[in-house]
Amino acid sequence: MTDPGDVRASDAEREAVVEQLRVASVEGRLTLAELTDRTEAAYTATTHAELAMLTQDLPAAGAVPAPPVPVREGRKRRWFVGIMGDSKRRGKWRIDEELGAVAVMGDVLLDLREAEVRTDTVDITAVSVMGNVKIIVPDGVNVDLEGMAIMGDKKVDVLEAAPGMNVPVVRVRAYAVMGDVKILGDSRAQPLKRGFAAWREHWRQMHGEDWRELGRQLRTEGRELRRQLRDQHRDLGRGY
Fold this sequence. Notes:
By secondary structure, the chain is an alpha/beta fold. The protein is built from five helices and twelve strands. A five-stranded parallel β-sheet has the order 1-4-7-11-9, with no helix packed on it. The longest helix is centred in the C-terminal third of the chain and has 29 residues, at 209-237. The radius of gyration is 25 Å and the shape is elongated. The two termini are 33 Å apart.
C-alpha cells in the first residue's frame, strides 16, 4: 500500500502551497528570504510529504487569519536618506509600505532578506546623486528595474527564479546622476546566519543523504524480514 506522503504532487497542489506561503508572509510569519526559499522548494517538490514539510510550522490553509496590520495614516512611503553620510537598514524589520532611498554624496543600504514583507510587492524609489544605493534581496525573487542613469549606473545582479513561478517581486524605480543604484542577490552579498539557511540544508539532506539512509535502512530491514520468513519455512518443514 502506498504511503499517502509518497503520492506525487500535482501542479495545482504546488500552486496551493505557494499561495499559502504568500498569505503567511503577508501575515508576518515568514521573512522575504524564507518565503523565496520555500516558494522555490514548492515548485520543485515531487510528493505530498515534501509539500507538507514546507507548511508544517504554518496555520492550515483556510484557518482564521491573523489580525490585519494597521494602516499607517499620513505616510505613503518610508524614506532612508544618506547625505554625505551612510544610512543602513538590515536585519529584522517590517515592510508594510513603499520605500524610498536617497543617497547624495553618501551611501544607502537596504537589506530585504530578513524583512517581514506585509505587501504582495516591494516598491522602492531609489535616487542617487554622486552616491550609492545598494539593495540586497534573496536570490529567487523577480526584480523589475526601471528608471534612468546619467553618468551613472543602475543594474541588477540577482539569480532570478525560472519563468512561470509565482515568486516575490521587488520593483525598483531608479534615478542615478553620477551615482549608482544596484540590486544584488544573496549570492553577491555577505552571507547571513539565519534560520532559513539551516532549513535549506535540511531540505537538501531530505532529498539526498536522508533519503539514501532511509533506503539503506529499508533494504536492511527487508533482508532481515526475508531471513526470518525463510527460517520459519525451514522450521515448518522440519516439523517444529
